[in-house]
Amino acid sequence: MFYIHDVLLFLPQDWVSQVQAVIERQARFVHLTGHDETSREPEDTDGSDYYVVGGTVARKELPWLEELYKTTFLHLASDSTGLGLRCSQDVDSSININWLKGINARYEWHVDRNPVTGLLYVTTHTSLDGGELLLRGDNHVTPVYPITGTLVVF
């Protein structure tokens, strides 16, 4: 199950340019092999590539994001799921920025270690553009298309 929230009202006016600037200065390249314990990639995968800004950097460079994570986003996630949630203590995975760059860029199929995850979209894409989050259920896959300022909780 997933929940979608429009959180633009809670974000600084120039939040997109702030996030983009941090990505340009701080993002590091990562190659996922598809062989991690949380991976659900097919056996014959070549893996996937992306760029990441880890939580330590994100918290320092975007303090408003950490504040929203600990307050507004936590409350939205708790209210949506009906669970008494707490913020993760793992700094690098609790607040990070993943950037998928270029045509056919993707993040690997995986299961998160956290029972609830939130994803805040910085960009908007149509179904023809790609960039959707694919949530796999027992007998189906549900696409969630990126809309700037949307928080998806799943």
Topology, pairings included?
Layout (H helix, E strand, L loop, with lengths): L2 E4 L8 H12 L1 E5 L15 E6 L1 H7 L1 H8 L1 H10 L9 H4 L2 E3 L18 E3 L12 E4 L4 E4 L5 E4 L1
Antiparallel strand pairs: 1-8, 2-3, 3-4, 5-8, 6-7
Helix pairs in contact: 2-3, 3-4
Describe the model:
With 154 residues, the protein is α+β, with helices and mostly antiparallel strands. 27% of the residues lie in helices and 21% in strands. Helix 2 packs across helix 3 and helix 3 (63-70) packs parallel to helix 4 (72-81). The longest helix has 12 residues, at 15-26. It is globular. The model has no long low-confidence stretch (mean pLDDT 90).
Percentage of β-strand residues: 15-25%
Query: Strand order of the main beta sheet, please?
Result: 1-8-5
Mind telling me the C-alpha Rg? 15 Å
- Biggest β-sheet, characterized? 3 strands, antiparallel
**Number of H/I helices:** 5
Principal-axes shape call: globular
Helix content: 25-40%
Report the structural category: alpha+beta
Oligomer: single chain
Question: How far is the N terminus from the C terminus?
Answer: 6 Å
